[in-house]
Task: inverse folding
């Protein structure tokens, strides 16, 4: 069955051709793309996709990681130094990002800046 999906990450689906009207979507007001999937995943990566750190080590919920470079927190003068440890990460829907706490600050980090310990 043909339907239309938003590729902006909001998960929008329509039965007829149209535009994405989801507030905050990166593709808001853009045309949705045709999809004729039968698995209901619309060509997206499955929830079981493998998440890997900068060295290719597989990450899972509860792992401990360290930063491989200094990162400045946007909108702040705070900088997290290379080697800062993040304990008990949580995987997100995006295989390129994890939730964690750095020095008491809850933050989402890209896995390309992390190394599993």
Result:
């Amino acid at each position: 069955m043909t339907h239309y999906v938003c590729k902006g990450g909001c998960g929008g689906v329509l039965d007829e051709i149209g535009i994405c009207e989801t507030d905050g979507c990166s593709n808001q007001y853009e045309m949705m793309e045709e999809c004729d999937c039968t698995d209901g995943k619309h060509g997206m990566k499955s929830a079981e996709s493998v998440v890997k750190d900068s060295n290719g080590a597989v990450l899972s919920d509860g792992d401990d990681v360290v930063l491989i470079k200094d990162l400045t927190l946007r909108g702040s003068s705070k900088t997290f130094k290379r080697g800062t440890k993040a304990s008990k990460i949580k995987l997100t829907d995006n295989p390129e990002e994890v939730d964690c706490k750095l020095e008491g600050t809850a933050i989402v980090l890209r896995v390309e800046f992390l190394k599993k310990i």
